[in-house]
Amino acid sequence: MAAKQVKQFDPVKTLHSIEEQFEMFQVLNEEGEIVNKDADPNLSDEELTELMTRMVYTRILDQRSISLNRQGRLGFYAPTAGQEASQLASHFALEKEDFILPGYRDVPQLVFHGLPLHMAFLWSRGHYLGSAFPEGLNVLFPQIIIGAQYIQAAGVALGFQKRGIKAVAMTYTGDGGTSQGDFYEGINFAGAYRSPAIFVVQNNQYAISTPRELQTAAKTLAQKGVAAGIPSILVDGMDALAVYVATRDARERAVNGEGPTLIETMCYRYGPHTMAGDDPTRYRTSDTDNEWEKRDPLIRFRKYLEGKGIWNEEKENEVIDRAKEDIKEAIKKADAAPKQKVTDFMKIMYKGDMPSNLQEQFELYTEKESK
Amino acid sequence: MAQMTMIQAITDAMRTELKNDENVLVFGEDVGVNGGVFRATEGLQKEFGEERVFDTPLAESGIGGLAVGLTLTGFRPVMEIQFFGFLFEVIDSVSGQLARQSFRTGGRYNAPVTIRSPFGGGVATPEMHADSFEGLVASQPGLTVVIPSTPYDAKGLLISAIRDENPVVFLEHMKLYRSFRQEVPEEEYTIPLGKADVKREGTDLSIITYGAMVHESLKAAEALEKEGHSVEVVDLRTVQPLDIETIIGSVEKTNRAIVVQEAQKQAGIAANVVSEITERAILSLEAPVLRVTAPDTVYPFAQGENAWLPDANDIIETAKKVLTF
Questions:
Q1: Which of A26, A203, A238, A360 is least surrounded by CB atoms within 10 angstroms?
Q2: What is the pLDDT of residues A33-70, one digit of tens each?
Q3: Which residues of chain B are within 8 Å of residue A140 when distances are taken between CB atoms?
Q4: Is the ipTM of this structure higher than 0.85?
């Protein structure tokens, strides 16, 4: 009997052929021109204006937050400039009933999902009322442990699936987050159960100081979805329309029972990692900064909208003024929050009766605080 | 009434709560068709379906994250960590996330999760399976830690744990799973969390203990009885929070105490019990409170465990020191 012919398998070729599939999806180029007519979501003028409004608002919120932080009037803050399209256009594809599990940089999406701004400020300051989110707001607090929100999103998605609720769990992490075990476990669990989750990786090129290329040998972060057997896409994260389309399609698949999607948004964080002493000049050059700023999500979207005659300086200034006014009001409200007491912390540790050890301490502290 | 082993009582408790509350979900590695590696979930998937009792991919952290997410959609997860030695793989979900969930959401999202896991030694498992990490989780505010020592207690405590509005770590000693049978009511009943049980009354010495060491302590108490010492055995049942009233009540009666745990001596539950006694009842004591524990090495490999684990003889020896002080 002749030896069976075995087809030669070339793992290097296989890898390259997979990687080649992950070309960056773009709809709007840096000049604000539609370069992918078939993919144009054909949003209405109102929708386009609303999306621009949110991005401008968020840029102002970022600038003011940085300055408030420097004045000592805000606490922990992770700057967002450069990531507006990635954050707000992905959120724009969601509905109120969708559940967001954010990372700590993803406060703007929460605000546009309905989080009162003064609560975002209280959260930044480290006040427990800052994460006591109101009923009916489908979000979890911004996660601090990198990647933990990914496995939790798989759980929320499974919960929606079991209850027959047509909604998605939407979660965000960064390029560094894709190195965590929880990242893989999260996309794998959601894939195995085909549950309605959207996993967004905002690849802003640096995990604090560690550049993207040191995180992994993978050419793209999107291709990590292939191993979990879930659809994934690499998107120009500075292009609001591309991010919107990718998320809209992912949501549609999810609520139709077709399972989760991984979306990598290529973007850039202009500012430091956080306001707690990070100095980006230690790990990146102004040339790189300038290169990315040319691709700015606001500039290109503004050009596109101005070309359509639906945006102008006056409109932009209105948004800027409104944002500044809102921020002023929210700070006032945050300033009026009650001073935190130890007994407050004790009351929110458990639902129902406190355990005996805490009950005893509660009595001690109640007495202490009454003095 | 039926004669049940502890593992049968545990299955029965889960069956009871799966029936009572449609929000209860049971999941973990191999808990479905296989019924769990110890058969704790035997027959549950068949009875309640794959929607309610289901297998997970092999990843403990993912299982913990799944539990967090399911609570956010109103479920009451009963998650199994296949062996508590795998706690390190899921410690962020347990201590970092579930224990803090109520606090981190200002009380909006409590976490009614039961984390079931086999633990403890004496059944020759491979390494990293048999550790006693109850002290580790007991040190985390937000968690209740329950350890039954009998089939009867196991059923009543597990039903209470599943009904609790906060996360409960429910640790099942592997050696006790099938070591004996006991009368267990077929109907439902609860045993409150945080309440110890006096398993044997006595007047000369209190042995305060939990888990498999309850049985070693009872053996020791019988032997000491023959030598004329009346020994009380207090089974903590919940190691966090401690039942101070029962512990102190017993010590005030006997004036002498030892604390017995299978875990290593350093830090841990026994140290907590001793601290509570010295803070609250030092004037009742006729002798120092001593501990019987495993030594402060890592848990040994299978063939070495019997030399390492504390037993009735160690308890008798320490009890005599305290009785004759």
A1: A360
A2: 999 999 999 999 999 999 999 999 999 999 999 999 99
A3: 72, 105, 109
A4: yes
